[in-house]
Amino acid sequence: xxxxxxxxxxxxxxxxxxxxxxxxxxxxELADRxxxxxERISDAMPGDQEAADVAHTARVVANEARER
Length: 68
Description:
The chain is mainly α. The chain has one domain (7-67). It is built from three helices and no strands. The protein has helices at 7-23, 27-43, 49-67.
């Protein structure tokens, strides 16, 4: 995985989440971006099991959303 997410990347994700909630969009794509951000955060925090668990759960949900 790549480096941890920047503030700008997180802000862009949150703006897109807000847009999805108000005008619609592709929830599977957003779930994939969320999982990517959480995986990168987890990678930057080795030994943090909670971060790893949250990232793993987000990836499972993103994969399920993509299959729908």
